[in-house]
Design a protein that fits this description.
The protein is mostly beta strands. It contains 1 helix and 5 strands; from the N terminus they run βββαββ. The longest helix is centred in the middle third of the chain and has 7 residues.
Length: 73
C-alpha cells in the first residue's frame, strides 16, 4: 500500500447527494483514491497520514474534477 495523505481541520464541502459540509473536516487519500471524508476526529481515528496537510480556514472539495485541463481529441 502506498502513502496516505491526510488533509485535516478544513471546511470540507462534499459533492455527495446530501451536500454535507464539515466545518472541522478531513479527507484521507491512499494511492490517489479518496478513502475517507468526515469530521477530523473521526477520520484521524482510522488514518494517520504519511503526509499531513493542515487546512484550517481553507475550503476542501473532495471529488471536484478540474475540467479546464482536460484535452479532447
Amino acid at each position: 500500500m502506498g502513502e496516505t495523505i491526510l488533509i485535516r481541520h478544513g471546511i470540507v464541502i462534499t459533492m455527495d447527494a446530501e451536500g454535507r459540509i464539515y466545518e472541522d473536516g478531513a479527507v484521507a487519500v491512499q494511492d490517489d483514491r479518496i478513502v475517507a471524508v468526515g469530521k477530523t476526529d473521526e477520520v484521524e481515528r482510522e488514518y494517520k497520514g504519511d503526509i499531513v496537510i493542515e487546512a484550517r480556514k481553507k475550503a476542501v472539495l473532495p471529488g471536484l474534477v478540474n475540467l479546464h485541463t482536460i484535452r479532447t481529441a
